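Researcher: Go.
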Amino acid sequence: MAKDLDVTYEEMRNAAKHVGREKEKIDGKLTDLKAFIQGLVEGGFVTKSASKAFNESFQEFIHGMKDTAEGLTGMSDYLTMAADKFEQIDEELGKSAKK
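Model: Structure:
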């Protein structure tokens, strides 16, 4: 028979922290990659138009990736909030059952 609810608060909070750490790693890699490409278009790939167009496209890509990665913050926050709410409701139900 399927369970309706099986929640481990600490596991949810740990998952939230893990997602947050991974988001920070992604941000760091994107920052490094942006700097690497910036160096490339300033030194190793310099043309009248192609390198500039490439750099503009790459900057748009980085911006989009950072916006996408920001979604991980929302997911991390959700997991934390859900764990807190489930724990709070469980405690309240436990108290009201004792009355």
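Model: The helical segments are 9-44, 50-97.
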